[in-house]
Amino acid sequence: MVDDNPLVANTFVMVLTSGGFDAVAAYSGTEAIELARKIEFEVLLSDVLMAQMNGIETAMTIRKIRPNCRVVLISGTDATSSLLSGGELLGHKFDILPKPVHPSVLLEYLRAPAATPQTFIAGS
Question: In 3D, which of 54, 49, 45, 60 has the Cα closest to residue 107?
Answer without folding.
Answer: 45
